Amino acid sequence: MDINSLKVLFTSLPGRYAHALFNEGKKSSCLEEISEDFSKLDKYFSENIQVRKLMTSCLLNKRDLHDCWISLGQYLSFCPVFLSFIRQVIANQRFGVMKKIRYIYQVAFAKYKNRRIVTVLSVVELLPEQKGRIEKLIYKALDEKVIIKYDIDERILGGIKLRSEELDIDVSFSSQLSQLAKYFKNMKLRLEKNES
Known about the structure:
By secondary structure, the protein is an alpha+beta fold. The protein has helices at 13-27, 31-47, 49-55, 62-75, 80-91, 98-112, 128-141, 173-195; strands at 115-122, 145-152, 159-163, 168-172. A four-stranded mixed β-sheet has the order 2-1-3-4, with helices on both faces.
């Protein structure tokens, strides 16, 4: 898969960061390590929220911030390309788009490896048997290598959403409520029109 086919994804600010990281990772033969480093950082920050707030705020001066990221990078065993990249993101005060950078990088990496990433969103952690049924359906529906990731999104209220680059399946409760609201709105408009 030619990575240039992702040009549209690379046009946004997070996309430009992800593209630069992908190119540097490819040049340094560490694309897989960068992907793992994103996961390590995400896991560490989800378990250490106060550290995340400190290291992504403006409370530390540049030197202290630099030292903190070097220490964290060594602690989590980041590859040098990822550590350099993350320090640049922080220096440019762009950590707020890091989730989008990660997503675009992962899409580019999956395309490069001829894989598809499917994210399953649910309101709570799914049980192993639920994950098994979902994975079976996804593997059956998609005739390609698939990486399935799970994420929590409390906004969906219930049910699940499946997301991929060209795929968006929404069987969530919030989606059903939205469809029901549209139905009632259309019915009300029809009734008002008939009464006039």
